[in-house]
Design a protein that fits this description.
The protein has helices at about 5-15, 20, 25-45, 45-60, 65-75, 80-95, 100-110, 115-130, 135-145, 150-160, 165-180, 185-195, 200-215, 215-230, 235-245, 250-260, 275-285, 285-295, 300-310, 330-335, 350-355, 370-375, 395-405, 440-450; strands at about 320-325, 340-345, 360-365, 380-385, 405-415, 425-430, 435, 450-465, 465-475. By secondary structure, it is of the alpha/beta class. It has 2 domains: about 5-265, Tetratricopeptide repeat domain (Serine Threonine Protein Phosphatase 5, Tetratricopeptide repeat); about 280-480, Rossmann fold, CATH 3.40.50.
Length: about 475
């Protein structure tokens, strides 16, 4: 057999009698190798070398349909639209049933703004290959741009039937349905898109906007809020929050997250009722497992340790309030002290979990400060574990707690410690959405409420991003003489 390098040289240069230099199998192998090289370089973005190898294929096989098609694509990438069209039309003449080439021809014609010719090319692609999805999608885009919405709708429907797992296709289908005024169908299409890809940002925006337009404000908030929480403090989350606030300029959940993650606009003095309710209703089902098993949550235990050090041994003789009781993690710890144990929380779903756990004489859905204000001189012990982290300014809630305590009564709570530069006002909002406070600010706010600090110690309250979250455990009392 002849030396392969010599044969390759003859073939490349076109010298000699090719029919004698190569047998058919060797010719096919070499051409296939060149084509593979062309495709690899093309995929890497090396258009110059890709063109060299495509041209080698065509020198050997001038009507090689795939080389013609992909060289046409390459020419379009170079901005040479006329040459691109010529190569792709040659590919079609070489292989009249080449559906992908018709799709690419349509794409080139769109660039040339020959929209009717592009539509004809796309339709031809679909005739030759019914599942040529890109032709359906691209034709839908052209028809939509021309205002021919019913035809665009049909194109996108065909595409969605052929590729039902594509979020982008369902999203585009939903856009056309909305433009046709078929809003319920548009909502269903965007919901389908998000079932395919929960992170499809444009589908999230469109679904939120459609729900808002239909007056389904809570549903819109839920869609946007869930997406924002999943995205975290990212550029995508910022864009979504900004869109959310364009829809609902006064929405407290969006405002709170924007302030916490991006420091924009005025930092709220506390988390709004709507934000807290939304947050904890959302997490109620897996709250205990997440806190205890994943975050090593210690707040109830450390606050009860301090109570045990300062108060007399429990005799079940106190009126006790679990302020921000959540799912009731403090109930078994407080029950030995309580003649009557009341739990208050903003989240109905968290209270449902507390009710299942048991241990309370009463559970109330209410905002903490407002609740305290309605029960003057009622409680011997108010415990707030990991609740005041949703308050920035504490003066009002401390004053309400002081008024709700009986003479000699106790307020016990945890607060996250503000680290680094001292924040203005003594507290800051963190990316977690929670607030942290300085020790000096806590002292000033408690004294201003007329409470005496008996203990302020530091402790690890939980894990945050695999690091210990340090906080303060504080016990303060209502002096006997301070109540007339």
């Amino acid at each position: 057999m002849r030396d392969r390098n010599k044969l390759r040289e003859v073939f490349v240069n076109g010298n000699g009698d090719k029919s004698k230099a190569f047998d058919g199998d060797l010719r096919s192998t070499v051409v296939a190798g060149w084509f593979d090289q062309a495709m690899a370089r093309h995929g890497q973005g090396d258009l110059t070398q890709a063109q060299v190898f495509y041209q080698r294929v065509l020198d050997a096989q001038p009507e090689h349909p795939e080389a013609l098609n992909f060289l046409g694509i390459l020419m379009q990438q170079r901005g040479q639209s006329t040459q691109a069209e010529q190569f792709i039309r040659r590919a079609i003449r070489s292989a009249p049933g080449y559906a992908a080439a018709y799709t690419n021809l349509g794409n080139v014609l769109v660039v040339q703004r020959r929209y009717e010719d592009a539509i004809v090319a796309y339709r031809q692609a679909i005739i030759y290959k019914a599942d040529e999805v890109e032709a359906c999608v691209n034709m839908g885009a052209v028809l939509r741009g021309l205002g021919r919405l019913p035809e665009a709708l049909e194109a996108y429907r065909q595409a969605s039937e052929r590729r039902p797992a594509s979020a982008e296709i369902h999203h585009r289908l939903g856009l056309v349905l909305a433009e046709l005024g078929r809003f319920e169908e548009a909502i269903a299409a965007q919901e389908t898109a998000l079932r395919c890809d929960a992170g499809h940002e444009e589908a999230i925006k469109q679904l939120g906007g459609l729900l808002h337009r239909e007056g389904r404000f809570e549903d819109a908030r839920m869609v946007l809020g869930n997406a924002v929480f999943q995205l975290g403090d990212s550029k995508a989350a910022l864009a979504l929050l900004q869109y959310w606030l364009r829809l609902m300029p006064d929405d407290p959940i969006a405002q709170h997250r924007l302030a916490a993650w991006f420091g924009q606009d005025r930092v709220p003095a506390r988390a709004s009722d709507a934000y807290v309710t939304y947050l904890f209703d959302r997490y109620a089902e897996g709250f205990d497992q997440h806190l205890v098993q994943e975050l090593n949550y210690q707040a109830p235990a450390v606050v009860m340790e301090r109570i045990a050090e300062i108060l007399d041994a429990p005799t079940a003789g106190l009126e006790v309030l679990d302020a921000g009781c959540g799912t009731g993690l403090c109930a078994p710890l407080l029950r030995p002290y309580a003649r009557r144990l009341v739990g208050v929380d903003l989240s109905p779903r968290m209270l449902d979990k507390a009710r299942e756990r048991g241990g309370y004489d009463e559970l109330v859905t209410a905002e903490l400060t407002a609740f305290l204000a309605t029960w003057p001189q009622t409680y011997d012990l108010i415990v707030s574990a990991d609740t005041l982290v949703y308050f920035g300014a504490l003066e009002t809630v401390f004053a309400a707690a002081a008024a709700a305590l009986r003479p000699g009564g106790w307020l016990a709570f945890t607060a996250e410690a503000a680290t680094g530069d001292v924040p203005p006002g003594g507290f800051r909002i963190n990316p977690s959405g929670r607030y942290s406070h300085t020790a000096e600010y806590l002292r000033q706010a408690l004294v201003g409420a007329g409470l005496e600090i008996r203990s302020m110690t530091t402790a690890t309250l939980r894990q945050e991003c695999d690091k210990p979250m340090m906080g303060y455990v504080v016990l303060a009392c209502q002096p006997v003489a301070s109540i007339g």
